[in-house]
Amino acid sequence: MARSMLKAKNMPREFWVEAVSCAVYLSNRSPTKNVDNVTPQEAWSGRKPSVRHIRVFRSIAYAHVPDQGRLKLDDRSSKYVFIGYDSNSKGYKLYNPSNGRIIISRDVEFDEQASWNWEAQEEQSYDFFPYFVEEQDVTPTQVMNHLPDMTPQQDMTPPPSPAPVHESFEESSSSGESSSETPHKFKSVEDLYRSTEAINNLFCLFIDNEPLNFGDAVKDESWKLAMDEEIKSIEKNNTWELS
């Protein structure tokens, strides 16, 4: 089942864990001959599970961006790929192919007929720094080889007659182009990676870490605002039912 879920929309094999987890989730809520008249989830918990929240694996999902996470003119939702269900909440697991991050969200709108074009993403170029650098292999000797051969004897000997204006212009233009033209080449990402490898580790100092527990989260004002927003959304949508 997991293999079919990946193959259906050409998802990368790196998502096999999410595919297996989602397949198990669906199997536990589907009829089986091993348990009579009930699903495995119902046999284990004693309650009939709801399937109204079931969505198509690897379909496109648009998750709501809270007010504190965006500016006035920013989009109110972000585009993700649905990769499963969270085991600790009623949220959906969503993957952002643009930055590789996974989030959990309940405020989601699905487009189950659409899917991410993984093949196009693999074929696109990742040269994010399209600037030019001077060719290092060009030596002064190579540049001088392009100049006309001028010897002292030719410089001291006056011409027998004035040279035509168009010939003199062409010669000076050719000489100017040969001497002023600077070869360039495109710098690849691999070259940039090698040149910045020595300072890559320093970037980790500027990355924000997510809190590991509730105690750390309530100390952060931004996380408190996010929790308040989530609680308001739960109350508004009547997500939880107390029994």
From TrEMBL:
InterPro entries: Retrotran_Ty1/copia-like (IPR039537), RNaseH-like_sf (IPR012337), SH3_retrovirus (IPR057670). Residues 144-185 are annotated as: Disordered. It comes from the Eukaryota. Residues 59-122 form the Retroviral polymerase SH3-like domain. Residues 171-181 have a biased composition (Low complexity). PANTHER family: RETROTRANSPOSON, UNCLASSIFIED-LIKE PROTEIN, TRANSPOSASE, PUTATIVE-RELATED. This is Retroviral polymerase SH3-like domain-containing protein. It comes from Hibiscus trionum.
